[in-house]
Design goal:
It is built from nine helices and 15 strands. By secondary structure, the chain is an alpha/beta fold. β4 (41-46), α3 (53-62) and β5 form a beta-alpha-beta unit.
């Protein structure tokens, strides 16, 4: 554990690692206080794209954690940056909420429901059959299909599992025969962007997450130390299905904090 604790930077997932829905997970407060007191560089890197960076900062504030919005990076931000690099000042039809819409606006994109360059899908309370049909029509007419992340499921309060972006993309992919390009984890773009924001090399960085299929594979492929926590979707039983293993398996982020700091 000393090797993990001595890392200079930590990339942390949020859902299933820091909280479930509106509930802070055990040991998180001590973990964040330890990161701050030890002057560690840290970034909350989430595949969730519904909320803006400010909303995420305020969400943690309501849970009693004081974390500036500069410590957050989302798949919405990564998606918007990717699209801006591919087609500057383009347009998109978006199935999503404030996080992805604001990120696209910040990158110079406009919303377009007639002839967009891209159809962008993320998790959203506004997801419905009419939007699926319209998105299908636009993709068949030539718009490129983009997902903010490939996650099929995600946890909410009480550990309940609900459909996430990958599942919401499926009807459009099946109806059009087009496979979406997903920018979020485990896409290496997301990890490179995170390391750039941290201004820290991979050798002294660790990624902490609850998913083998996104967080852990992203860290392994980026050659970053990986720590899987069992506070989200992964269990000791289901991780055996994967052909790769994390460097550490922990009950929660509180295990990273030295006992004298608790």
């Amino acid at each position: 554990m000393e090797n993990l604790r001595n890392k200079k930077a930590f990339i942390c997932d949020m859902d299933g690692v820091i909280y479930h829905g509106k509930n802070l997970l055990p040991g998180v407060k001590e973990f964040v206080e330890w990161l701050q007191s030890e002057a560690k560089k840290f970034l909350f890197l989430t595949n969730s794209s519904a909320k803006t960076l400010r909303e995420l900062s305020q969400k943690l504030a309501r849970m009693g954690l004081d974390v500036d919005e500069s410590h957050f990076y989302t798949s919405a931000r990564a998606t918007a940056a990717f699209l801006a690099s591919q087609k500057p000042h383009g347009s998109a039809y978006v199935i999503g909420d404030a996080g992805i819409i604001n990120a696209l606006y910040d990158e110079g994109y406009s919303m377009n429901d007639t002839n967009p360059d891209y159809v962008v899908v993320s998790e959203s309370d506004n997801y419905d059959y009419a939007r699926i049909c319209h998105a299908t029509k636009l993709v068949l007419e030539g718009a490129k299909l983009i997902g903010t992340n490939p996650d099929l499921t995600g946890p909410i309060e009480g550990g309940q599992i609900i459909p996430a972006t990958g599942a919401l993309l499926a009807p459009i992919e099946l109806a059009t025969g087009c496979k979406a390009y997903c920018v979020g984890k485990p896409n290496p773009l997301m990890m490179r962007n995170a390391l750039k924001k941290l201004e820290c090399p991979r050798e002294v960085t660790a990624i902490v997450g609850d998913r083998m299929d996104t967080d852990m594979i992203a860290g392994i492929e980026a050659e970053i130390t990986t720590a899987l926590v069992l506070s989200g979707v992964s269990t000791r039983e289901n991780i055996t299905r994967f052909a790769y293993r994390p460097d550490y398996i922990l009950d929660g982020v509180g295990d990273i904090v030295p006992s004298e700091n608790q």
